[in-house]
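The instructor's notes for this session suggest beginning with a concrete chain rather than abstract definitions. Hand out the sequence below and ask the class to guess, before any prediction is shown, which regions might be ordered.
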Amino acid sequence: MEIKLCFDKMIKGKPYPNLATHQSVPYTQEWRKFSVTSPFSEPPMLVEFMDYSKVPYKIVPLEEADNSTFYLIALSFFDFKVNWFSLMSNKLLAKLKTKKIKILFYYWEADNPYIINDHISHQCRLNHIPRQQVKFISANSQAKNIKHFYHFVDDELLFQFRNRKIEPVQFHEMYRSMKFTALVRTHKYWRANVMTKIWEHGQNQQGYFSYSDEITAEETEDDNPIEVDSFGNLRELTRLFLNECPFKADNLSNDIHNDHRLAVNEHFSDSYLNVILESHMDVDQSNGILLSEKTFKPIKNAQPFIIFGAQGSLQLLRDMGYKTFEHVIDQSYDSIGNTSKRWEYTMNVLSSLILLSRHELHEIYVSLEEDIKHNQQLFLENKKDRLKRLVTKLYS
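After discussion, reveal the predicted structure:
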C-alpha cells in the first residue's frame, strides 16, 4: 500500500516542513533550527525513512489531495499554546472540513498522548473539523490504545539512518578491560540516583562511566519519579555525587556525544554490559513506554544490556523481535509497575552483575553469542516491513 502525502512546498527535492514559520534551505545550518522554532514543525524524517528503506510513497499537491492523502506535520515538540488550525490556509481547512484530506502529526517524543488527544479533540471542535480527519503518530506506546493515534518506535529507524555510515562493533571472544558501560549526557535526578549507587562503592572505576552536569532536563529534586527518601541516605549521597561531576569516559564534547553519526568503539567492544538509562522511567505519567536511541546503540554494537526505563520496555523489545537475555539476566524488574520499586529491583540486578568477576562476565557474554548476533542483524535489516505496517494501520 502506497501512502499519499501533501506538502505546501518542495525545495531541492525535499519536503519543506508544513506550517513552519522558520525560513531555511535544505542542508544548511539554518535547516536545523526548525526543531527549536515555534511551532516546532521540522523536516519530516518519516519521508527520509521511507526513502532509505525503499518504501514507495506519493507526494501530491493540495489541489489533487483526497481523503486518502495525509498533510504531514513532523514535530520536535508538542506546544499546547499552538493553535494548529489557525496556521492552516483556507484551502486546506476547506478540504479538511469536507473530508478531502487528513492531517497526520508525526511526533518522536513520548509526551502523554491522552493529554495531546484531549487538546487536539478540543481544537477540532472549536474549528468544526471532523475528529477522524486528524491522525497522530507517537513514540509513546500508549498511543496504540487511543482512537486516531498510532504507536511507532521512531528511534530504531532514526538511529539506524543517522548512524548508517558507522560500522557496527562485531561480537568477539577477547577479554575486555571493563565490566560495563554507563553513559549519561543529560542530567536527571533519577539517572543521578543510578550512577550514585554505582559510584558509592567505587564501582564506577570498573566501567566506562560518564555523567555530565552541563546539560539538564530542567528538573528539580522534587521532579524525581523515585521516592529517594525511601532509600536511606540516597538523597544526600546523590548531592555528593553531583558535586563530584562531571565524570568522563572519553574526551569528546557533549555536542559530539549527541551526534548519532558518531560512536566510540571501545564503549561497546571493550565492556561486557551496557547500562541503558532511558529518557524516562515514568513516561509523563502515561503508563507508556519510550525506546530511544540509547537502547538501540548496544543492540547495533553487539552488547547485552539492562534497562532503567518504563515498565514493559523489555517486553516491547521482545514484541519487536529482539532478544533480551532473560535466561541469564533477571528481568523481573520489567513487570514492576511502581517506579521506585522497579528502580530498586533493577539496581539490585545491576549490582549483582557488576560484582561478578571479569571471567564470569566473559563467560556470560560468550554464552549469549546467538542472541547478541540475532539482535544486531535484526537492527541492521531493512525496516520496510515496520513502515509498511504503520501505513497499513493509517489506512485501516
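Then share the key points. Residues 179 and 291 are 24 Å apart (CA to CA). Residues 339-354 form the longest helix (16 residues).
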